[in-house]
Amino acid sequence: MQIGIANTLPAHQVHLFQARRAGSFKYNQSPLNPSTVISSSASSPATISAPDCTKRHLANLDKLLQKETPNSRSNRLDSIPKVPRPDNGAAPSGLASRGRNFLEGLNLARIWPEMKAAAEEMSPRHLNRLHRLLSMTAEYSPRNSLACRWRDYHGGNDWKGMLDPLDENLRREVVRYGEFVQAAYHAFNSDPATEADEAPLPVRVALPDRSYKVTKSLYATSSVGLPKWVDEVAPDLGWMTQRTSWVGYVAVCDDRREIQRMGRRDIVIALRGTSTCLEWAENMRAGLVPMEDESSSSSPQAQTQTQPKVECGFQSLYKTEGAHVASLAQSVVQEIKRLMEQYKGETLSITVTGHSLGAALSLLVADELSSCSPDVPPVAVFSFGSPRVGNRAFGKRLTGKSVKVLRIVNNQDVITKVPGLPMVDELDDDNHPLAYSHVGTELRVDTRMSPYLKPNADVACCHDLEAYLHLVDGFLASNCPFRANAKRSLVKLLNEQRGNVKQLYTSKAQALSLKFERQGLAATGCLPSPSSS
User: Fold this and answer.
1) What is the DSSP letter of 264?
2) In which element (H, E) is residue 377 found?
3) d(CA 303, CA 460)
């Protein structure tokens, strides 16, 4: 039997077997691997010799653990954060301590800088927050009372000291007005066509804030048109050639609690961005033209080239009448005068808000309203991704009328840099036909500050309204990172800009969406109104 075993075992295991039978071997656990044993003998301290491969393994492991002198070891450990002991208070074993110190000594954050960010993104706390942002149970901060300082938040002092860092209450107000513009987009997209031979039907708008009610639909009409043969060739695409389109609405606050919170009754005019074919055609008419009231004047100032001028296409959409509707200029002035008479004696404010083309039209609306009546309420503009609208004289005209403009700009949004040419800006020549200039106070955000969006997001994402609201919600200051306690849901951003969201969050969102579907739930991307929050 012994011969059979000896023939089937390696030489060092034969010695181990013989020593065990002779009773001269004692088992001791190895300090490096408790599952193995080493020998000790009373007669011979080393009756069993390990193979060369085992020796090399132990030597390599010894090098890996980097044995050090007590002094050098203590100096290095002083720079390493203390690791708490287990819950039972017991000290870690020697092997565990040695392995932990080895990993800490590697300083993986320095070797692999992305590891720290990845660890933070995948931490349970971060994933819990992501789950909340992707769910319909997100908690939103309450709206504070603005009654004492409503004029400051409405631009009475040009928002000085409130933008960098961004005031918490102003952030909520900016996001809220942006959602009014989103409601205009949704209402138009639900039924974009307008019949050319009859008056348009009322458009139903689902307001994000139920303390407001819609009082007037607004329409914009293009002065250019496509040939009739286009309709004959493609009759199903007739909505693309329509000259008059629903562009926005007027809404007024009708809730006493909200009026008390804001300190006044607020009138909102919300205008959507470019959506139809002829609106794009108007955007391309980039030449500066005198404003109609200035061009009709016979004063010497009106005959100079430094008079207020605006883009030809914007003025066309603002001033042109439709076949069955008044022009945007006529409609908005008529409705504001009616509301001023209806709420005469109350403290009122007029807030004009828009995105893209709607932001450009907002400036023309504000200019018109600021002089439509001797006792007109304060007028403020909250614009998102606005192109340049007029020359410097137009900006001075708005300032002289006390129109306050807060222009929210994404640093990567190319639409905010047009129309006009960079070389014209360098010439600083007001007489140039493309001498455009921005108006008002600027709040600048940056796509690269968002931890969710790709830093190289495309042009559409950088100009998207939901991306704007996401960036405003996370903005703290120009020298600060994205705020960690941002509350806005990511659902709408993922739905509209999935290709521009980092892969980590799209995969997590997909998993959560499947969970919602199994539970029969639907996620929402809108902030609730005060009455529902």
Assistant:
1) S
2) none
3) 40
Conformation bin of residue 218: beta by default, left when phi > 0, alpha when psi is -120 to 50: beta
CB neighbours of residue 420 within 10 Å: 20
Nearest CA among 282, 372, 292, 274 for reference residue 332:
372
For residue 10, the surrounding DSSP H or E stretch is: none
| pTM (predicted TM-score) | 0.71
CB 207 within 8 A of CB 180: yes
- What whole-number distance in Å separates Cα of residue 397 and Cα of residue 341? 27
Which residues have CB under 8 Å from 135's CB, separation 6+? 512, 516, 523
Over residues 198-223, the pLDDT tens digits come to: 778 778 999 988 899 999 999 999 98
DSSP of 30-71, one letter per residue? Answer: -SS-TTSEE---SS-TTS----HHHHHHHHHHHHHTT---HH
DSSP secondary structure letter of residue 480 = S
3 state SS of 522: coil
3-state secondary structure (DSSP) of residue 318: helix
State the Rg of the chain over Cα.
35
* Helix-helix angle 357-369:392-400, to 10 degrees: 50
Q: Which residues contact 468 (CB under 8 A, 6 or more apart)?
A: 178, 355, 384, 385, 408, 410, 445
Q: How far apart are CA 359 and CA 353, in angstroms?
A: 7
* Bridge pairing between strands 288-290 and 37-38: unpaired
Are 144 and 173 in contact, with CB atoms under 8 Å apart? Answer: no
Q: Domains along the chain? A: 2-82+96-104 (no CATH), 139-445 (3.40.50.1820)
Residue-wise pLDDT tens digits, 460-508:
999 999 999 999 999 999 999 998 888 888 888 888 888 898 877 777 6
The residue to which tokens 């009372």 are assigned: 145
d(CA 202, CA 249): 11
pLDDT tens string 443-455: 999 999 998 899 9
- Residue 401's contacts (CB-CB under 8 Å, 6 or more residues apart) are 367, 370, 371, 379
Low-confidence ranges of the chain (pLDDT < 70): 1-142, 196-197, 226-240, 293-305, 422-431, 508-533
Which residues are identified as catalytic?
Answer: 356, 413, 463
What is the distance between the alpha carbons of residues 409 and 196, in angstroms, rounded to a whole number?
Answer: 36
